[in-house]
Amino acid sequence: TGKLVAGPFKSVGWVGAVRFSPDSKKLAVQLDWGTCLEVWDVQSQKLDVRIGKASRRGVAFSPIFWTNKNKTIIATFEFSFPADSPLDVFDYAKTIYEFDAVTLETVGAPFEGHTKFISGLALSFDGALLTSASYSDNTIKLWAFESRQLLASFDVQDPVRLILSSDSRELAYTTSTKDDHKICICDTPPDILAQARTIARKKSARRDLLNVCISFFFSSYNSPITIITV
C-alpha cells in the first residue's frame, strides 16, 4: 500500500546505498562518496553505530552487502576525505572493506587494486566471488572473497554497475558515456569461479575444524577428572 511502517531515519548526508540485513532487523547505509557508513536498528529506529563523516561533496551509488550470517558488511570506503580537499572525488573510495556489523571495525585485509573510485560491486550468492567495477580506472576485477586475492582484472571502458547471475556463471555490467549507454553480459571465466569456490571451501573447512577443536577443548575442560590409583 506504500504506507509508512518505520522511519523516517534521520541520516547525516546523501544516502548512496541502503540494504536490509537478511533477517530484516538492521539497515546498512552508505553515505556520500563512501565517506560514512551507518547501521540502524529497524525496530527501535535508532542508530546502532556510525563511522566516518559526510563529505557533502555529492553522492555515489556503489552497493553494500551483508555477509557471514549478518555479522559483517562489505562496502567501499574512504577513511581520509578532507572536507576541503581540492582533489577529484574519483580519487577516493577505491578500496573495499569488510566491517564488523556491530562495531564497524574492519575485519581482515582490504580488497586493494583499483586506482580510482569503485562504481560497482557485486557478491556471488554463495559468497565465494566478489566483483568490482571502476568507471574511472576502466577495469572490472574479480576477487576470491575469503582470501581477498585478486583473481582477474579486465579492461572495460567506462563500466558503472555490475551483477552476477544466480549461479555466478555470467556477469552483467553497464557502461556509460555522455551519449552512449550499454548493458553487456559476459561469461565468468570457469577457472576463476572454480578457484574462488575452492578457496571458500578450504576456508570454511578450516573454520569448521577450529570450531570442533574449541568445542572439544571446553567440553574436556568442564568434564570431571577421574583419578585412578593402583
Characterization of this structure:
- There is one protein chain.
- By secondary structure, this protein is mainly beta.
- It has one helix and 14 strands.
- The strands form four sheets. It has a four-stranded antiparallel sheet with strand order 1-2-3-4, with no helix packed on it. A four-stranded antiparallel sheet has the order 8-9-10-11. Strands 5-6-7 form a three-stranded antiparallel sheet, with no helix packed on it.
- A hairpin with a 5-residue loop joins strand 1 and strand 2.
- The radius of gyration is 21 Å and the shape is globular.
The level of helicity is 10-25%
User: Which percent range describes the beta-strand content?
Assistant: 35-45%
Shape: globular
How far the N terminus sits from the C terminus, by CA atoms, comes to 79 Å
Q: What does the main sheet amount to?
A: 4 strands, antiparallel
Widest beta sheet: strand line-up: 1-2-3-4
Number of strands: 14
Number of helices: 1
